[in-house]
Design a protein that fits this description.
single chain, 322 residues, alpha/beta, Spore Coat Polysaccharide Biosynthesis Protein SpsA, Chain A, Arc Repressor Mutant, subunit A, 2 domains, two-stranded antiparallel ribbon, globular
C-alpha cells in the first residue's frame, strides 16, 4: 500500500518556550527523529506543515526529502487545520496516512509497522490504555477528516463515532511522549537515554541580549514576532499563553532600554485597534534572528569539534551497549 505522512509543525511552541521541532535529541533534532521513524516504517511521501519559523524549519530540513506547506494562519488556527492542509496536498493514490505532531519523535518503528497491519479506517496506538500518536488514517477516513468542521478538532471527530477507530495496545511509551513543556522534553531525554543505555552530552544554547536588563530573550523575540503576525498585542499574548500585562511590560522594558519604540499601538475605532512593529522594531527582530541562527550553526560546529563522539556518547562512539 502507498503510505504517506503529514507532520504538523506550524505551532508556536508557546508552553515549551523554545521551538520544539529543532530541540536537540541525540545528535539530531526532534523533527528529524520523527521523519526518520516514519520513513523507516515505509512512509514514502512525508509532508511537513509549517507556520511559525517556517523559513528556519525549511532550511533545517532542506536535505531530508520531505515536502513543505505553510499554514499561513497558524496563529489563528489549531492543529487540525494544519493536518487538513497537509492531507489535501498529498499525492493522489495515497492509501494510508500517518498524522502526527512534530514533537513525538521516539515512537518505535515496530509500532508503526504493526499499525500498518491493522485493517481499520483509523488506527490509534495505545500505551497502558492511553491514546497517543501518530494516528493512521485510511483513504476513506481522510475524506471525512477533510470535511470535518465540528468542535474539538480531530479528537472531536473521532468521538462522534463516524469513523471506525481500532485502538492498538503497543507497549511503546514513545507514543505518549512529546515536548509540549520543558518537563516533557526532559522526560523525552531520559527515555532516550534508557533506550540507548546511556545519556549523551547535548548543547542547549540560550541567547539573551540586553543592557541593564536582558530584554531580547526567546520569549520576548517570539512576542515581537507574533505582534507582527497577528497585528495585535492582545492576540500575540493569547497565542503565547501569557497575560496581556506581562506582554505590555516586556514591550515597555525593551523600549526603555533601547530608547526607541519597537511597537506602535493604534487606538480602537470603527475598524478596531491593534498593534504593529515599528520599522526599527522589525529591524531589531530580523537582526536577532540572523544572529541567533548564525551563532547556533557555529556553536553546533564548535560543539562537535570540542566534544568528539567518544566524549559525547559515554557508551563509546555513539553505539548502543549490548
Amino acid at each position: 500500500m502507498a503510505v504517506s505522512a503529514v507532520i504538523a509543525a506550524a505551532g508556536l511552541s508557546a508552553r515549551m518556550r523554545d521551538f520544539k521541532p529543532l530541540l536537540c535529541l541525540d545528535s539530531s533534532t526532534v523533527i528529524r527523529h520523527t521523519i526518520d521513524t516514519l520513513r523507516g516504517a515505509g512512509a514514502e511521501n512525508i509532508l511537513v506543515v509549517t507556520g511559525y519559523q517556517s523559513a528556519v524549519l525549511e532550511r533545517h530540513l532542506f536535505d531530508s526529502g520531505v515536502m513543505f506547506l505553510k499554514n499561513e494562519r497558524f496563529a489563528q488556527t489549531d492543529m487540525l487545520t494544519s493536518l487538513q492542509l497537509g492531507l489535501a496536498a498529498l499525492p493522489a493514490g495515497t492509501e494510508q496516512v500517518f498524522v502526527t505532531p512534530a514533537d513525538v519523535p521516539l515512537v518505535a518503528r515496530e509500532t508503526l509497522e504493526r499499525m500498518l497491519g491493522v485493517e481499520a479506517q483509523v488506527v490509534r496506538p495505545l500505551y497502558q490504555g492511553k491514546g497517543g500518536h501518530p494516528l493512521l488514517l485510511r483513504a476513506d477516513a481522510v475524506e471525512r477528516v477533510l470535511d470535518w468542521r465540528g468542535p474539538g478538532g480531530l479528537k472531536g471527530l473521532l468521538s462522534t463515532g463516524a469513523l471506525e477507530v481500532v485502538p492498538v495496545e503497543t507497549g511503546d511509551p514513545g507514543v505518549l511522549m512529546d515536548a509540549d513543556t520543558p518537563e516533557d522534553y526532559r522526560r523525552l531525554l531520559r527515555y532516550q537515554a534508557r533506550l540507548r543505555g546511556h545519556g549523551d552530552l547535548r548543547l542547549d544554547l540560550q541567547v539573551n541580549i540586553g543592557m541593564e536588563e536582558l530584554f531580547l530573550t526567546t520569549e520576548n523575540v517570539q512576542l515581537l514576532d507574533m505582534i507582527g503576525q497577528t497585528g495585535s498585542l492582545q492576540s500575540a499574548c493569547a497565542c503565547m499563553h501569557i497575560s496581556y500585562s506581562k506582554g505590555w511590560k516586556a514591550i515597555k522594558t525593551m523600549e526603555r532600554q533601547l530608547g526607541f519604540p519597537v511597537a506602535r499601538r493604534t487606538a480602537g475605532g470603527p475598524e478596531g485597534g491593534g498593534s504593529s512593529l515599528t520599522e526599527r522594531g522589525a529591524e531589531l527582530l530580523a537582526c536577532y534572528r540572523r544572529f541567533h541562527e548564525t551563532l547556533s550553526e557555529e556553536a553546533r560546529r564548535l560543539f562537535d569539534q570540542s566534544f568528539p563522539d567518544y566524549l559525547r556518547s559515554p557508551g563509546g562512539g555513539g553505539e548502543e551497549k549490548p
